[in-house]
Amino acid sequence: MSKGNTKITLAEKDMPRQWYNIQADLSAPLRPPLHPVTGQPVKPDDLASIFPMNLVEQEMSTERWIDIPEEVLDKLLLWRPTPLHRARYLEKHLQTPAKIYYKNEGVSPAGSHKPNTAVAQAYYNKEFGIKRITTETGAGQWGSAIGLSCRLFGLECKVYMVRVSYDQKPYRRLMMQAWGAQCVPSPSPDTNFGRKMLEKYPDGSGSLGIAISEAVEDCLSSEETRYSLGSVLNHVLLHQTVIGLEAQKQMASIGEYPDIIAGCVGGGSNFAGLSFPFIRDKINGRDIEIYAVEPTACPTLTRGPYVYDFGDTASTTPLLPMFSLGHGFIPAPIHAGGLRYHGMAPLVSQVVIDGLVKPRSYNQLQAYEAGVTWARTEGYIPAPETNHAIALAIEEAEKAREEGKEKNILISWSGHGLLDLPGYDAFLQGKLTDYAMSDEEIALSLKSIEDLPKP
Amino acid sequence: MSKGNTKITLAEKDMPRQWYNIQADLSAPLRPPLHPVTGQPVKPDDLASIFPMNLVEQEMSTERWIDIPEEVLDKLLLWRPTPLHRARYLEKHLQTPAKIYYKNEGVSPAGSHKPNTAVAQAYYNKEFGIKRITTETGAGQWGSAIGLSCRLFGLECKVYMVRVSYDQKPYRRLMMQAWGAQCVPSPSPDTNFGRKMLEKYPDGSGSLGIAISEAVEDCLSSEETRYSLGSVLNHVLLHQTVIGLEAQKQMASIGEYPDIIAGCVGGGSNFAGLSFPFIRDKINGRDIEIYAVEPTACPTLTRGPYVYDFGDTASTTPLLPMFSLGHGFIPAPIHAGGLRYHGMAPLVSQVVIDGLVKPRSYNQLQAYEAGVTWARTEGYIPAPETNHAIALAIEEAEKAREEGKEKNILISWSGHGLLDLPGYDAFLQGKLTDYAMSDEEIALSLKSIEDLPKP
After folding, report:
1. Which residues of A touch B249 (CB under 8 A)?
2. Domain A37-67+114-231 classified CATH 3.40.50.1100?
3. Minimal-distance CA residue of chain B relative to A4
4. For residue A417, is pLDDT > 80?
5. pLDDT in tens, A115-139
6. How far out from the chain centre does Cα A246 lie?
């Protein structure tokens, strides 16, 4: 008790009132997305049938600070500001002089950082007169976040959930239904593409690519419906910057500043949310090491090239400038489902290109070992995705011990693992494999992007 | 945003340093527990083989304030102080002038209030030189809390989990295992009583009574092992009073005081945790309505007599002075597993006898309807047990609307329902029944206590 500062809260009145747009501080403008047919830079109108125009404008904005609408703030206050904890028991266990801080995004109603952008997207859709949102989800983190947010703003919501997850991981589907969202297994009989897939593969387990195609087709079938995406895009990352902006205030309130920052990356949104405000400090001269941590089973940043590639497996989205393993890449079935994405947010890709962020990777066994160590010292059971950031924190804390250096390590604790416990069970029973990719597998996967335009 | 005070935090330095012992403020001393064989009041030594003596002394203490040991405070700080939220969106939905506040115990690593006492019990056992704790668990809320707490204090832990829950509700078992506790289905081949039961009923689904007997037998087989209980006993309720002591400070920090307080009751510990510090105020003259809310499927306080009865189904514990439906009572299989207990904590029974607390009951359908309304307005999905307190809050808020009165309603939000989603699914699909008990069922159940001593 005498130690203090195990949990650093932030008063509601100190909640950030603006999002931070890193596009204002990049050394050069972000390369534009390209139209998938013409190969020309995408224009706002090209996106108007998919996204409401207010979000399209936000996607392209280079204003540094963007006001968070009052109605969005009000909803965020249901769980924000989130606590910043110090992981004292982990530090003690590691016998490290390093201080390990974590920003706990697991306290949201959906249990992850995803609602930060979901409530904002639901709001902008509603403002634009949209009545209904369609989306896809894999394991269900995103689907549950948008299901919750649509309910809070009175929108209808339809989630196409990859069938294998729909059947094997019922809990997040049940969350969506508790909030009143419609969740169907994809491929579904509700769309032309879904029916075609069902005819071709009656027992197919589905894929994120198929689910995206269904959600987009559904969206295009109605004037009052738009589509929503939970990561990768600029406006999604923008909405997540409340994480880092709060963390900056919380660190300042105890007179500390991080030496090392880390977050796991799948599409890149929770990592960007924590790190972008600190990257601004780094651009302005601060000395910080910032790490984007990915699984060796999907080593987009550590082993993929920077290219133009489709955002989806079905090759229907605009081409995005990003690190990619090729849109045909199907990652091994690691439990960290949120990190199984072939590409990377263009903004995260850019800060890696610019040398502001270094990528690192851990395999599934290393990640779970870190997660179990965390649960048994700090109590909270982390999401399998979050375990990758924890693995880095532990490695850096051990390094600090060896070097005898007092370092401040700050990680994004992107979500809890209460609905992912079977993965821990498999790990503890010795049933998991590491799934690190071979050079041959990567070379093969990259063939799918050989003929695409180069950045 | 301008509204403020949606979530009222409390700084670590303001965390209560003492537990509140309501035994100091009762109009008469609590009736003693009676030895199950002799019928004489239980002496501390009678309990020494089951509980460590420091907890036995705490059980019998009548000191008003009991210091929380620093090491317990340090562990509680992993998640405490918990936030007090105002349920603005529910208020708006109900169009009520009432303000609804809820104390969010769902933020603990195990997702409920149970770790408040689990960490204290693990600490006192460790202090007394105990190396290993045994316990039983039904759905797993208690087993996971004690599993976590044993790990935090370096104790071994073995949990006997009722087989039907072990098989049907794997997630809480997986939590225990993630924290390193041993969890076996009961009846198990690990005890004499378990083997006997397995021989007699090879396909038996187990019961809490059997699991208690196994945990106690295991405990008695080793000098370094003690048994731990998650509710009912005085020291358990004492440890939970941090909930109400924090809530008092949080309400005071915004210049408010509750007119109505409610919590759900099974054994009584979360209700006592929130209400006892306020009952002290009531004894000292404050005008508060305080409600203990139970399911109509297990209407201990609303329809049971105040008697001496066994705490367990197997008739092995001391006789406790309490409201009871008879130790032979097997409640209907409602999803609120934590409320399926035939008795009630002696201290909660006493404050009902003294007229300080009024019991109320809701059936399962009313409780789930309240829970869905909550999830769809406030976001967080409540535990099925918590839904009973929410049902009362909604009814009182509607009454306040009709009467045009501005009332402050404060409830114990005892846990989240993320691992209880199948119950919501069944409710939304119209598959649940209300399970209100008939007079005949109650009369039949009470036969099991006809011949026991009267208080």
Report:
1. none
2. yes
3. B12
4. yes
5. 999 999 999 999 999 999 999 998 8
6. 18
